[in-house]
């Protein structure tokens, strides 16, 4: 399976410009799975709820169509972040598409800081998508800091995790090696880079998109700053045997009755 | 609060020699909390259940008395690993003592590889001990790979985690930075070093004992090989405010209803 990330520097509110940037970066790229950053087409630094509503889309609109065309051109399943409108709510979401269908949506469960002001928290739980013969889990950015996110996806049978991000803290890339070891799973973290100053906020996004294997080895790491696309071959089947020693299975060795959940 | 680890190379089955090694390393050391490795007085590489039973002790026996004298000499609460006999079972356990009492015991919940052949798995759950004014969680070695271990201790109110280890895999020290970030907690990992060859097994233990703060910063790191004692000043109160951003509290932001436990 050929999997990859697209790291770039979106311009706030300029959907068409961002589409063109991505399209250019993926010219002549072929893959089975491509992950784009969180909120890749709109930018990150919203300053009001009105703004996030104005830039949000429903499934099937402009961003969906762009991503499906991208799926057609690259042969890949695409996972990408967008502000998603559903009834009267807007979610920080990811859409999963191939060239002929919307495979699904994931609405971010753990919102970071002021995202709580602009978005509704995901209310459909974690989801694992069937992209035969593999099971794809999706989480978005800050979900990483809660070990329950990737653990839930692993328990649901995910072989790999697509992880669109807009990271402003320096911890995630190293932590993803632990997430992958503890669940014996692959992860593709697609981060943006560059700075964005709007309203009272100025963010620096740290790049360093990363593909991590079930032993916590970093198979690919993007630069801190700069466009970067990397596609590598992985075998997601390597995630399925959870035995780290002859007598230790990472999932069946769990002793649930001793775990507190609240 | 002055906390530290004792890293050394125990000799298998030679309790008195190991006591002397520890005593020598702690000569003139004063602290509030000292953590010794897993199975510090017996060594690790058991070859039969009979052997683990023969080297096991009940609370109050030789190892307890040694540790209480050590507590007297150093002024510290001591956490140390030992094979613990209770009724007809033997656990890979930790004992927590001060100069005048046994504060408690923790029986390792997640056994590593052949430990499953020599020990019974802990059946009393995770525990947090009151060492006023602080709350001390204890986990042993392989417990680290299950994020549920340190999460449970954090949810039980632990300010810091004492973590006796005999590490043979290279992942734990880096992972402890993630454990400390995700729970905003301190941890003291006390590892042994050296090699031990018995029966069919030969292990190399990796040293690098470590004190980690709630931001995942490594405050102290021992050598891969060699005796090492380090005592540093920490303020466990820094673990109590779980807000990593103005709007994000690492524990109350958890969305339990979406977490799978099995």
Q: What topology does this entry show?
A:
The structure is a homodimer of 262-residue chains.
Chain A: E1 2-7, H1 15-25, E2 33-35, H2 49-55, H3 62-74, E3 77-86, E4 89-97, E5 102-107, H4 115-118, E6 128-131, E7 134-138, H5 147-155, E8 160-164, H6 172-183, E9 186-190, E10 193-198, E11 201-206, E12 210-212, E13 218-221, E14 228-233, E15 243-245, E16 248-249
Parallel strand pairs in A: 1-2, 2-3, 7-8, 8-9
Antiparallel strand pairs in A: 1-14, 3-4, 4-5, 6-7, 9-12, 10-11, 12-13, 15-16
Helix pairs in contact in A: 5-6
Number of domains of chain A: 1
The counted number of beta strands of chain A is 16
Query: What's the order of the H and E elements of chain A?
Result: EHEHHEEEHEEHEHEEEEEEEE
Helix content of chain A: 10-25%
Structural class of the secondary elements of chain A?
alpha/beta
Largest sheet of chain A: 6 strands, mixed
What oligomeric state do the depicted chains represent? homodimer
* CATH fold title of chain A: Nitrilase/N-carbamoyl-D-aminoacid amidohydrolase
Strand order of the largest sheet of chain A: 5-4-3-2-1-14
Could you list the spans of chain A in which at least 5 consecutive residues all have pLDDT below 50?
Answer: none
Strand-residue proportion of chain A: 25-35%
Helix tally of chain A equals 6
Mean pLDDT of chain A: 97
CATH architecture level-2 label of chain A: 4-Layer Sandwich
What general form of chain A does the structure show?
A: globular
CATH class of chain A reads: Alpha Beta
CATH homologous superfamily of chain A, by name?
Carbon-nitrogen hydrolase
End-to-end C-alpha gap of chain A: 38 Å
How much is the radius of gyration of chain A in Å?
A: 17 Å
């Amino acid at each position: 399976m050929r999997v990859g990330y697209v790291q770039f520097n979106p311009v706030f509110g300029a959907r068409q410009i961002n589409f063109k940037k991505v399209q250019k970066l993926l010219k002549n790229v072929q893959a089975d799975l491509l992950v784009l950053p969180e909120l890749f087409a709109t930018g990150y630094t919203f300053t009001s709820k009105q703004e996030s509503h104005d830039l949000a889309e429903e499934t099937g609109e402009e961003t969906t169509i762009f991503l499906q065309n991208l799926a057609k051109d690259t042969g890949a399943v695409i996972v990408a972040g967008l502000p998603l409108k559903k009834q009267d709510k807007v979610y920080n979401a990811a859409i999963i598409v191939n060239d002929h269908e919307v495979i699904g949506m994931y609405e971010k469960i753990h919102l970071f800081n002021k995202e709580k002001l602009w978005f509704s928290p995901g209310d459909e739980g974690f989801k694992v998508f069937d992209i035969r013969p593999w099971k794809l889990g999706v989480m978005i950015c800050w979900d990483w800091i809660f070990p329950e996110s990737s653990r839930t996806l692993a328990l649901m049978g995910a072989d790999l995790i697509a992880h669109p991000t807009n990271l402003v803290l320096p911890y995630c890339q190293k932590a993803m090696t632990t997430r992958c070891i503890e669940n014996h799973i692959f992860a593709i973290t697609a981060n943006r880079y560059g700075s964005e100053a709007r309203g009272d906020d100025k963010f620096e996004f740290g790049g360093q998109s990363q593909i991590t294997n079930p032993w916590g080895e970093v198979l690919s790491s993007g630069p801190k700053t700069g466009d970067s696309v990397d596609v590598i071959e992985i075998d997601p089947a390597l995630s399925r045997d959870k035995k780290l020693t002859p007598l230790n299975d990472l999932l069946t060795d769990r002793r649930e009755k001793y775990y507190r959940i609240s």
